[in-house]
Amino acid sequence: MSTVTPSTLTFDGLFARELAEMAIPWRAEAVPDPRLLVLNEPLAAELGFDPAALRSPEGLHLLTGNRLPEGATPVAQAYAGHQFGWFTPRLGDGRAVLLGEVVGGDGRLRDIHLKGSGRTPFARGGDGLAAVGPMLREYVVSEAMHALGIPTTRSLAVVATGQPVYRETELPGAVLTRVASSHLRVGSFQYARATGDVELLRRLADHAITRHYPAAADADNPYLALFEAVIASQASLVAKWMLVGFIHGVMNTDNMTISGETIDYGPCAFMEAFDPATVYSSIDEGGRYAYANQPVVAEWNLARLAEVLLPLIHEDQEQAVPLAVESLEAFRPRYSASWSAGMVGKLGLQTHDDDVTSPVVDGVIAVLQAGRVDYTTFFRRLGAAARGNAEPVRNLFADPAAFEAWAESWLALAPDAAAMDRINPLYIPRNHLVEEALSSAAGGDPGPLERLLEAVTAPYDERPGLERYAAGAPESFGPYRTFCGT
């Protein structure tokens, strides 16, 4: 069989082999006319792939699952999940297959996963396909998140299939090649527990420990240590989301990874005017996953993980429950510490004395909320204020009096402007620019997508010619809503 992997790169079927009860062998649907839309060449090289080979006809067949590399054992993964609070015991990869795992040049084991590759036994009535727009959205936003230093699944490529996808209208189809530390989710553990097979649950936990948190294996209670490690990684992750104004949009338990990577860029967006109640998802009518609710939902999801891990934490549930509760209680202080440290950094403060920094941090949030100014622009322009030019940031406010009063106390702490510019991005995937890029790419013009990627993959470095990528949406853009893309 012809492959495009170099001799040093071999796919493994680790998940399929170790957790066969949670993996249905499956092949991607044939793609009639594959055409490469975007390829992440740095990531390809990092994984050990030859970018030139991936651009070849054989490479496109690999990127769509129509030609299997050596060692690949494609499967659709099973998982469960609470979706908007309601539990479904059997969800799974309805339109995706895991090709297998590879060890990259950095020695890290990572999944190669295809999204939009056709119906699987978990399709639940769907067609298993994906449209160009949502797959390119995931590519843009996940690569922007990576550039911002936020743990995330990544995108290797998007390939147009030449096959139409029918939603409200006919749309061009595409397959996204996704790379992840793993696709283990809270929902994976919920599925294993729902089978009633405690040994399957134990093997899944052992798999997660080996893959993500090997130090937990040496703990007195390895499964409690696994839970605590997931708590720590998720507290840090969600704090990072909040610090850049990212709104995930669909924080179901099947979209919370065990690794602490961001996954599933469906109805996601970056907040512009600061408002803690911001919701962009068209299906989140009650605001369950609003910006300000994300830490609360993360804790709720982790409580669901605790519930399913109880038989492993202690054979006596009456003893397991207080152990899990005590561990879960660490989430809030961990999250608060991560967020506070990040905000101190965004403000350029060089002391971490809470008595000094807390009033300034609390004050800036009050100023932002009252002024409803652009979140990203505010912090970037604040760097100029630290250099003595407060006019650009002052101009964001219709009534700058409150800002001026706060800025006086902030400036008294001698903020480091250079440090602020290294942590406060200038370019994020602005919602209107994302829509423009996706529309153009679907119509055959990749230029706007390429320019947007150029901006957001180097988010801190100001460059001439990219001024519009630092500007907020025009008023004509109107209220913004995102969709799951299914």
Protein described:
The structure is a single chain. With 486 residues, this protein is α+β, with helices and mostly antiparallel strands. Among the domains are: 14-183, no CATH class; 349-415, no CATH class. It contains 18 helices and 11 strands. The strands form 4 sheets. The chain has a 5-stranded antiparallel beta sheet with strand order 2-8-9-7-6. A two-stranded antiparallel ribbon has the order 1-3. A two-stranded antiparallel sheet has the order 4-5. Strand 6 (96-103) and strand 7 form a beta hairpin. Helix 6 (186-194) runs antiparallel to helix 7 (198-212). The protein is globular, with a radius of gyration of 23 Å. The chain starts with 13 loop residues before the first helix and ends in a 30-residue tail after the last helix. Residues 1-8 have low confidence and may be disordered.
